[in-house]
């Protein structure tokens, strides 16, 4: 089920309710069950779905509503509010400020879209008047530096990396120094991806973070990974102080549930979504319009 289907299912559940002659507890229960099924099919974790259902039941007291109140509207508002709450961890992400050397480190699994997203993030800020730069601290994957170099060159963003050096911490620190001197106000560090089972990935990430003291660590997650999203996001949160999430590949088979899980696991907001391979296919993520679209 892709994101649009999730939205379709939720709005169908709400619409069916409005066609009922009387909206009573049974109709509400049926509607919430249908929404729960749709969320689970979209890979939202069972526990989160149960919490959402319980919270809506608690906040909607059908009997206490005045006669003539549009019950469907009340329920729809409650559903929307709960979905927003799931996507809003309550604390905003760090926002880079012009004129000071903001350091942002990217982490994520190999193939998540991390390197592509680094360039998109740099390009987005460049258009806002920042002077971004990219550091390739991925010494693990052959070709990582070439890829970053190619992307950066295309986007006209200064970059730093090495074909010879194998210590990512050294490269990160050197890149940071170089770009601080060059007065870059947004230094973006791309770290190595690898796989979830590799303890070395998390250790390396910790070391790069310790040496560079980033203002923000962004966790990049493939939106189509499904139920694995929560555990993956949590593993990263435990090893690095993740402060924001970017969900990629939302143009593909993303089910939407991954976004909810990543927020819950990292207690950090989604700040952007990737919607394609091109550098401009990158959107600021705002909770309310996203939920508004889900509700149709
Ligand atoms: P990394 O291993 O995490 O650095 O991943 P890459 O940046 O190399 O991306 C892996 C693949 O995903 C590449 O083919 C990218 O073009 C593609 N990709 C990244 N972001 C998106 C996105 O938002 N949408 C789509 N469709 N593809 C993406």
Automatic annotation (TrEMBL):
A GO term, aspect molecular function: GTP binding
Localization terms from the record: Cytoplasm; Endoplasmic reticulum
Principal subcellular localisation of the protein: cytoplasm
Entry keyword set: Cytoplasm, Endoplasmic reticulum, GTP-binding, Hydrolase, Nucleotide-binding, Ribonucleoprotein, RNA-binding, Signal recognition particle
Domain SRP54-type proteins GTP-binding: 269-282
BP GO annotations: SRP-dependent cotranslational protein targeting to membrane, translocation
Recorded catalytic activity of this chain's protein: GTP + H2O = GDP + phosphate + H(+)
TM spans (from-to): none
GO cellular component, one term: signal recognition particle, endoplasmic reticulum targeting
Oligomer status and interactors: Component of a signal recognition particle (SRP) complex that consists of a 7SL RNA molecule of 300 nucleotides and six protein subunits: SRP72, SRP68, SRP54, SRP19, SRP14 and SRP9.
Family: Belongs to the GTP-binding SRP family. SRP54 subfamily.
Record remark on domains: The NG domain, also named G domain, is a special guanosine triphosphatase (GTPase) domain, which binds GTP and forms a guanosine 5'-triphosphate (GTP)-dependent complex with a homologous NG domain in the SRP receptor subunit SRPRA. The two NG domains undergo cooperative rearrangements upon their assembly, which culminate in the reciprocal activation of the GTPase activity of one another. SRP receptor compaction upon binding with cargo-loaded SRP and GTPase rearrangement drive SRP-mediated cotranslational protein translocation into the ER.
Role noted for this protein: Component of the signal recognition particle (SRP) complex, a ribonucleoprotein complex that mediates the cotranslational targeting of secretory and membrane proteins to the endoplasmic reticulum (ER). As part of the SRP complex, associates with the SRP receptor (SR) component SRPRA to target secretory proteins to the endoplasmic reticulum membrane. Binds to the signal sequence of presecretory proteins when they emerge from the ribosomes. Displays basal GTPase activity, and stimulates reciprocal GTPase activation of the SR subunit SRPRA.
Protein name per UniProt: Signal recognition particle 54 kDa protein
Organism: Triticum turgidum subsp. durum (Durum wheat)
Lineage: Eukaryota, Viridiplantae, Streptophyta, Embryophyta, Tracheophyta
Portion of the full-length sequence here: 1 to 296 of 493
């Amino acid at each position: 089920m892709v994101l649009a289907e999730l939205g379709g299912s939720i709005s169908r559940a709400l619409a069916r309710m409005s066609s009922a002659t009387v909206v009573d507890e049974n109709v509400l229960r049926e509607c919430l069950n249908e929404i729960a099924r749709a969320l689970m099919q979209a890979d939202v974790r069972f526990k989160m779905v149960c919490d959402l259902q319980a919270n809506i039941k608690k906040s909607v007291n059908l009997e206490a509503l005045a006669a003539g109140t549009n019950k469907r509207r009340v329920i729809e508002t409650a559903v929307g509010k709960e979905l927003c709450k799931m996507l809003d961890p309550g604390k905003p992400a760090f926002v880079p400020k012009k004129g000071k050397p903001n350091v942002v480190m990217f982490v994520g699994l190999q193939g998540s879209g991390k390197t592509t997203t680094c360039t998109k993030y740099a390009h987005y800020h460049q258009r806002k008047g920042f002077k971004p730069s990219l550091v390739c601290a991925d010494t693990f994957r052959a070709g990582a530096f070439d890829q970053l170099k190619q992307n950066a060159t295309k986007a006209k963003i200064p970059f730093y990396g090495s074909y010879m050096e194998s210590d990512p911490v050294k490269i990160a620190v050197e890149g940071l120094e170089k770009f601080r001197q060059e007065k870059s106000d947004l230094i973006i560090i791309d770290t190595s991806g690898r796989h979830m089972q590799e303890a070395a990935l998390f250790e390396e990430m910790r070391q790069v973070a310790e040496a560079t003291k980033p203002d923000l660590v962004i966790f990049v997650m493939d939106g189509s990974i499904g139920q694995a999203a929560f555990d993956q996001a949590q593993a990263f949160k435990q090893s690095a102080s993740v402060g924001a999430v970017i969900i990629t590949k939302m143009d593909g088979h993303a089910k939407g549930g991954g976004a909810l899980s990543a927020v819950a696991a990292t207690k950090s907001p989604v700040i952007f979504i990737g919607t394609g391979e091109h550098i401009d296919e990158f959107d600021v993520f705002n909770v309310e319009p996203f939920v508004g679209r889900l509700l149709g």
